[in-house]
Amino acid sequence: MESERELLFVEEHPRKGGLRTMPFIIVNESFERVASFGLQSKMIIYVMTYYNMSAATGTSILGLWGALSNGLALFGAITADFYLGRYRAVAYGSISTLIGMIILWLTAMIPQLKSLSCSEIHHVCNGPTTLQLAVLFSSLGFMSIGAGFVRPCSIIFGADQLEDKKNPENGRILESYFNWYYASSGVSTILAVTLIVYIQDLYGWKVGFGVPAILMFLSVLMFQIGSPLYNKVKAKTTENLVIGLFQAAVAAFRKRNTRLSSTNYDELYRWPLESEVLPPSKDFRCLNRACIIEDPRKDLNPDGSASNPWNLCSVEQVESLKALIKALPMWSTCFMIFVDMNIFSFSLLQTKTMDRHIFPHLQVPAASFSVFMITALTIWIAFYDRVLIPLLSKYTGQPRGLSPVTRMGIGLIASSMSIALSAITESIRRQRAIEEGHEDDPNALVNMSAMWFVPQYALLGIAEATHGVGQVEFFYALFPKSMSSIASSMYTVGTAVSSLIGSILVSSVDWLTSTGGKTSWLSSNINQGHIDYFFWLLSFFSFLNFLYFLLVCRFYESLNDGRSRSSHVAKEKECDYRLLHES
């Protein structure tokens, strides 16, 4: 009730924006999430069954799909901020997602758009034609473009409707909005991996793909119905921060022969409105050349701005580039944890062959086991926020209980434990399948409960909760205030790079282990393959990554106490949780 009273303050300006726009925006995001995540859950089964792909090939393709979707999120955010505006970005993205889902639904409806099933008599599998693959990949491409525009822009577009700087309660109103937004996202994800998966299992792919397409159509329709009510913030006309970083690098390279002075700061260029005069840092001093004014008459315009921004940059731009370079080593430690999380296709193949009953008359669909990860993530965040933070802050002196770096380390350890546990469980499952005579039948049901996989999903949920939030807070503390949005972007790009690494790793392991006519570790027949060996390999890489993380931490000891950020920035606000990736 208190949250609703707070949100009512927004109705001071009834013409545009306000609380009345929230149903359209939240329904748009919720339906898009249910539709998208519902399709992703069982895509590996679809491409293996109707496109005769191996488990390794299907996993690699879906990994590339995830990499494209996450990578385009950065492109979508930049395009919305500086060119399209968030309203058009969400509208175009929603339509693109709808087109992709309709094309995918057509592949299930029209037999000619998918390859023939394997011949049971001659044991011959007809591979998909170029046209069939083109149609499939086009549907995935449209959905990736849509996700790249909708997901980074939808939540901030909703905040635009409630923004009212004249209202002293606006901060609390926005905080309430973000809480409700993320709550609806969590509920939508759970519905996607349970209800949509159940429909696919019960009614088949035609209905299973048709329902998400209908939900996405309703998502587009609801968003457009609310169009006359929206406060449509125009794209920024100020300089693009990302382009500014490239300009600083180019300017430093062009002036690589310019002499550096350690005392004269009058020759440095600053923004005309830059209030605080600070010397550039001594880290990466070679980059300081980018802000040196060599000839004021040539380098500066009459109004004091740089005549050529690719040859002269401000101190702020140079310091932003330095902060980004400093963040790269720690950013690279996140790849392995996301690789561990992205190898879910094999877990689906495992649980599909096991007893999934919780009760005699209640069976969990194989593609719905990720709900245990989501549940563990939610419980851990609530437990940490409400119970552990008050206790730990008294002993650590950290307002958030544990430092961001410590939480990132805990996430890496939890992820490593999860993959090691997966390897042990798969070794037991495979041994039982062989003992029961199912070596040649990958679809046979093994007399083993799939609930053995719940702990690994729970550990992955805890890993995501600790590492994800800690990483965004770490980057937020490291970057200057003008780069706050980059914190979320680096997380998103990190997941994209991890998906790409995972796809390359799967393809490489499949090729290397199948040479000489041997059965691949990642064979579609998981009873003949050795997925457990692959999981042990991931565990080893995760262990090496953790050692690398400890090495990198030595360079960030000054940041580990959470006070690294400039005091004038740190006092203004804490980490903005709008920046968190919608995992």
Give the percentage of residues in beta strands.
under 5%
Which structural class best describes the helix and strand composition? Answer: mainly alpha
- Catalogue the unreliable spans: 1-13, 558-583
Distance between the termini: 28 Å
Strand order of the largest sheet: 1-4
Q: What is the averaged pLDDT score?
A: 79
Principal-axes geometry comes out as: globular
What is the helix/strand order? HHHHHHHHHHHHHEEEHHEHHHH
Tally of strands: 4
Residue share in helix: 55-70%
Radius of gyration: 26 Å
Total helices: the number is 19
Sheet with the most strands, sense and barrel status = 2 strands, parallel
What's this entry about, in short?
This protein is an all-alpha fold. 63% of the residues lie in helices and 2% in strands. The longest helix has 34 residues, at 170-203.
